[in-house]
């Protein structure tokens, strides 16, 4: 994917040198490798999207206060520029599509952070993976997730990383089109009935449709 030299988004906030607040104590949790890691990541991501924090259960560690002071490496800086370019691409693409529908595309924000950060949906943690918060219309990502994709899931390359951003922007598009509230209603009905697990309620049709939007 040729992205160097392309327009970067103006809707990016870099909190990597200011991310702090509560963090998990002890050695920390690392994403398991293989399919198990992918399934675990999806479960935690989906639960966090609906306001359910599973990170404490998974780590069994107390919450402490921690402030990030580590410097940003050249590789991380390149990943940040790449992420900004991909977000700009989604802005251009969805701007054109909404214009065809006679609508104005309200561009989402994107926050890059490290470890943990505050969001409109509560505390955001890197263990949750990239996620979209409908309350503040913002995509959140700890760029170390790209390393986990490569090392733990075997998903390397610009296309795979770019798809992650496009997928989360897809959730924003769902919200703008009025689809996201309907998905939440479906989830709440199924969750109340206890007939299907959370992952199924979100995946049909919301998560799969969001994959389509991200593609």
Automatic annotation (TrEMBL):
The keyword Chloroplast does not apply. The chain crosses the membrane at residues 38-58. It is a single-pass membrane protein. GO terms for biological process: proteolysis. Residues 1-17 have a biased composition (Basic and acidic residues). InterPro entries: Uncharacterised_pept_Zn_put. One of its GO terms (molecular function) is metallopeptidase activity. GO terms for cellular component: membrane. It is found in: Membrane. Pfam families: Zn_peptidase (PF04228). Residues 1-29 are annotated as: Disordered. Keywords: Hydrolase, Membrane, Metalloprotease, Protease, Transmembrane, Transmembrane helix. PANTHER family: INNER MEMBRANE PROTEIN, PUTATIVE MEMBRANE PROTEIN YPFJ. This is YpfJ protein, zinc metalloprotease superfamily. It comes from Escherichia coli ISC7. The lineage of its organism: Bacteria, Pseudomonadati, Pseudomonadota, Gammaproteobacteria, Enterobacterales.
């Amino acid at each position: 994917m040729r992205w160097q030299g392309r327009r970067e988004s103006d809707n990016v906030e870099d909190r990597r040198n200011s991310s702090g607040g509560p963090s998990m104590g002890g050695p920390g949790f690392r994403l398991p490798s293989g399919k198990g890691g992918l399934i675990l990541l999806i479960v935690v991501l989906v639960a966090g999207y609906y306001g359910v924090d599973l990170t404490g259960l998974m780590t069994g560690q107390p919450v402490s206060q921690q402030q990030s002071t580590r410097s940003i490496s050249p590789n991380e800086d390149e990943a940040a520029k790449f992420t900004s370019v991909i977000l700009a691409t989604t802005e251009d693409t969805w701007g054109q599509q909404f214009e065809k529908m006679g609508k104005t595309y309200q561009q989402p924000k994107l926050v890059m952070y490290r470890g943990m950060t505050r969001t409109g949906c509560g505390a955001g943690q890197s263990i949750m993976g990239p996620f979209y918060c409908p309350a503040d219309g913002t995509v959140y990502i700890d760029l170390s997730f790209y390393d986990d994709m490569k090392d733990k899931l075997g998903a390397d390359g610009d296309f795979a990383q770019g798809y992650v951003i496009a997928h989360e922007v897809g959730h924003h598009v769902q919200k703008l089109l009025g689809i996201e509230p309907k998905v939440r209603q479906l989830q709440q009905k199924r969750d109340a009935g206890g007939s299907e697990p959370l992952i199924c309620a979100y995946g049909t049709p919301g998560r799969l449709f969001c994959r389509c939007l991200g593609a």
